[in-house]
Backbone:
């Protein structure tokens, strides 16, 4: 009896140890995230001994290799926001309409085919999309619009749009799909057409999920590197037209890090740019998370 | 689900009993209903169009890469290192490098990812701690790839002094793939019916025995699908390896974990932007891009079909 008791106890102890082991491993993601923040700040903050926060964020000139160098990332921030906004103007309607099509309109058979296509669009490597934008889309734009260079804000936004459509589409579709059937049936029974049901019942009911999808799609666009590095044109100026070449933050970091001498001011400035970029995406993700939890749709009762 | 909702529309629109329909049309001006249905079909065509745009975009990209890239691909291209300042020869070191990096990343991310998913789905209770861990995972998934590159450079390359190497690159890519693996593994665990667990616990097995002997084997196919997706994601990424593992050119294949290497995505980038003979190496660029998407899309197609078969069996 005592023996069995002891065996039970040791079994329990082992179970608790295993549980603790899994718990510690589950913390790996948070730890990685923390390390990312720590090292970004460690390598980025020293630049503030050379320029003030205000001059860094709002300085209009980014000439890090000049003598004396200028470390103003305002044009880079504006460029990042510009490509994100312009690409969203394309990707949000396209993504949401595709999501509605998949969740509500398409027959089962069509859906089985279209869904993998959207998923495959999501996994195209960014460098391939950038390459495509460079060698196919850029010459095309140049000849059609008669502009000096095809590598510009518009081209980059177009390519980014196709990278964020899958994110927006997949997440919105999940949200639309999870709208309780009773709501739709009630609306249809009242005589509304299928479209009226979608517009007045289904979409409003899944709005929080769609918002989350849109925010995450924008977050993907602002952080995307290879596309803007290869396609945006690389001029560190505040853009005045849709066809101006620009240099968003990720492009600047990726292009210059290889040339920046180790632990020089330029190197620190690039890490500090990384902090700003990280802050943007963190903000997007936290807002998305907040929207998803705050306005979570739990059955029909919360409507 | 879809078919049923479509069927409901038809009920609402056409299959009204005659008397009720007449009654309705007396009250609403005639033609309005037809107008509404016309509008609906107009809007639905718009939806179809936007879905088609996605397919067309994918087709155009794949078409151009295949049409212009397949000529570059032959046995020499796949089995030779680059020659004459990268204007001729093949891409063998890049293929090997990409395989090393993505498999390395998977070796890092798979055990940690599966274990995290087991904790999240099998052990954790809802509460603030769980919410915090999930927040961490979601935010890690949203970190831009170039930030992973900076992190890898500062942490693995410099601080841990691994140098620009396969090890640094694989660890960086592993950190980036972690959320993908966790997500896929959790979904796989969720698809295992609770009755399995209850049966095992009812027979006197402990929680761990249940997970190890019952839940994991049942979830294994789903986890493998996730692993394939993670592998393809790691294979296609450029920015995280730019400062941590990849080099323009290395004459020999890697012999240790601390060697720097060439990789397919970085090779495309270098040839397309930084070479002195950008136009002359166009066919090599197309060829390399084609090899990369065949690798990535191939892995994904395998995962998609595998998953579709799994779902049908469930």
Residues:
């Amino acid at each position: 009896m005592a023996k069995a008791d002891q065996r039970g106890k040791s079994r329990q102890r082992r179970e608790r140890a295993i549980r603790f082991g899994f718990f510690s491993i589950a913390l790996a993601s948070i730890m990685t995230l923390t390390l990312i923040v720590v090292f970004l700040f460690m390598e980025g903050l020293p630049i503030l001994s050379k320029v003030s926060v205000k001059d860094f964020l709002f300085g209009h000139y980014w000439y890090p290799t000049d003598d004396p160098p200028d470390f103003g990332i305002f044009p880079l921030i504006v460029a990042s926001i510009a490509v994100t906004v312009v690409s969203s103007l394309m990707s949000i309607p396209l993504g949401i309409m595709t999501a509605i099509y998949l969740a509500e309109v398409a027959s089962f058979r069509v859906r089985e085919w279209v869904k993998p296509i959207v998923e495959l669009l999501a996994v195209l490597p960014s460098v391939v999309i950038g390459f495509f934008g460079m060698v196919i889309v850029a010459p095309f734009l140049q000849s059609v619009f008669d502009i000096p260079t095809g590598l510009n804000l518009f081209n980059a936004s177009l390519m980014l749009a196709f990278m964020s459509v899958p994110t927006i589409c997949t997440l919105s579709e999940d949200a639309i799909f999870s709208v309780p059937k009773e709501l739709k049936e009630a609306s249809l029974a009242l005589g509304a057409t299928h479209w009226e049901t979608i517009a007045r019942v289904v979409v409003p009911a899944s709005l929080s999920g769609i918002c989350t999808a849109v925010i995450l799609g924008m977050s993907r666009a602002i952080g995307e590197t290879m596309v803007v590095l290869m396609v945006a044109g690389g001029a560190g100026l505040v853009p005045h037209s849709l066809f101006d070449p620009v240099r968003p933050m990720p492009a600047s970091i990726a292009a210059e890090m290889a040339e920046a001498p180790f632990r020089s001011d330029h190197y620190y400035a690039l890490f500090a740019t990384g902090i700003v970029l990280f802050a943007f995406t963190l903000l997007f993700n936290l807002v998305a998370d907040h929207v998803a939890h705050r306005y979570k749709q739990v059955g029909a009762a919360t409507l | 689900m879809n078919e049923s909702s479509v069927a409901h529309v038809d009920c609402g629109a056409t299959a009204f009993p005659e008397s009720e329909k007449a009654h309705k049309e007396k009250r609403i001006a005639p033609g309005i209903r037809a107008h509404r249905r016309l509008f609906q079909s107009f809007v639905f065509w718009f939806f179809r169009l936007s879905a088609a745009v996605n397919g067309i975009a994918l087709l155009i990209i794949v078409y151009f890469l295949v049409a212009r890239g397949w000529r570059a691909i032959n046995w020499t291209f796949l089995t030779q290192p680059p020659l004459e300042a990268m204007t001729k020869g093949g891409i063998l070191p890049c293929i090997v490098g990409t395989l090393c990096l993505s498999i390395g990343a998977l070796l890092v991310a798979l055990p940690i990812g599966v274990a995290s998913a087991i904790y999240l789905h099998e052990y954790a209770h809802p509460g603030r701690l769980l919410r915090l861990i999930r927040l961490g995972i979601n935010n890690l998934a949203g970190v831009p790839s170039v930030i992973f590159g900076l992190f890898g450079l500062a942490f693995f390359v410099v601080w841990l002094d691994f140098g620009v190497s396969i090890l640094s690159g694989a660890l960086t890519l592993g950190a980036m793939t972690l959320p993908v693996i966790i997500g896929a593994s959790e979904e796989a665990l969720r698809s295992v019916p609770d009755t399995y667990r209850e049966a095992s616990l009812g027979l006197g097995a402990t929680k761990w025995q249940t997970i190890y002997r019952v839940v994991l084997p049942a979830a294994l196919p789903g986890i493998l699908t996730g692993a394939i997706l993670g592998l393809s994601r790691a294979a296609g990424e450029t920015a995280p390896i730019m400062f941590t593992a990849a080099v323009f050119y290395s004459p020999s294949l890697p012999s240790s974990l601390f060697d720097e290497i060439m990789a397919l995505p970085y090779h495309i980038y270098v040839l397309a932007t930084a070479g002195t003979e950008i136009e002359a190496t166009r066919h090599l660029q197309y060829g390399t891009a084609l090899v990369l998407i065949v690798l990535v899309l191939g892995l994904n197609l395998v995962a998609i079909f595998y998953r579709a078969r799994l779902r049908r069996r469930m």
The mean pLDDT of chain A is 89. Chain A touches chain B through 100 residues (CB under 8 Å). Residues 73-302 of chain A form a domain with the MetI-like fold fold (CATH 1.10.3720.10).
